Structure formats: structure tokens, C-alpha cells
């Protein structure tokens, strides 16, 4: 279970999580049911909601893929 420094941080994380799930579902619907990854949803979130998903975002920080991983993939 995630441990948060404050109630505000917990609420921000929950909001980001709900938005990522929404983006993931909408992306799946728009691509005619194709499953999409959370990583792709976070990437799209940074494009369409940069005020929420930026370098300070809990989701972006936790799911940032290191350069080496991207290169190997």
C-alpha cells in the first residue's frame, strides 16, 4: 500500500489514478477495443493534461521508464 506524506498528496494520487484509468479506457474505446498499457495512457495524459501530468505528477514519477529500458525495448 502506498504511503503518503499528507492527505493532499493522497488525494492528488487518487485523482491522477482515476484520470489515467479514464484515459486508458477512452484510448481503448477509440482504438476499437485494443488493450492499451498504463504507460501509453500516461504518455497521452502528459500530452492532453500537462497541468496534471508533469514532472511533479506522482504517476509520471512512478512510471517513468529509464532511458536504458526504452533503448532495449
Notes on the structure:
The protein has about 70 residues and is mostly helical. It is about 65% helix and about 0% strand. It is built from four helices and no strands. The protein has helices at about 5-30, 40-50, 60, 65-70. α1 packs across α2. The longest helix is centred in the N-terminal third of the chain and has 24 residues, at about 5-30. The radius of gyration is 13 Å and the shape is globular.
List strands and helices in order, with pairings.
Layout: H1 7-30, H2 38-48, H3 58-62, H4 67-72
Question: What is the gist of this entry?
Answer:
By secondary structure, the chain is mainly alpha-helical.
Distance between the termini: 29 Å
Number of strands: 0
Q: Segments where pLDDT lies below 50 for 5+ residues?
A: none
Instruction: Report Rg.
Output: 13 Å
Secondary-structure content class: mainly alpha
Number of helical stretches of at least 4 residues: 4
Beta-strand content estimate: under 5%
Give the oligomer, counting copies of the same chain as homo and different chains as hetero.
Answer: single chain
Q: In this structure, how is the largest beta sheet organized?
A: none
In round numbers, the mean pLDDT is 82
Keywords:
mainly alpha, 0% strand, 63% helix, 73 residues, single chain, globular
Amino acid at each position: 500500500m502506498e504511503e503518503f506524506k499528507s492527505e493532499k498528496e493522497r488525494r492528488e494520487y487518487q485523482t491522477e489514478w482515476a484520470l489515467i484509468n479514464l484515459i486508458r479506457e477512452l484510448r481503448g474505446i477509440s482504438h476499437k477495443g485494443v488493450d492499451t498499457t498504463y504507460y501509453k495512457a500516461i504518455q497521452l495524459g502528459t500530452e492532453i493534461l500537462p497541468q496534471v501530468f508533469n514532472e511533479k505528477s506522482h504517476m509520471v514519477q512512478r512510471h517513468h521508464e529509464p532511458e536504458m529500458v526504452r533503448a532495449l525495448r
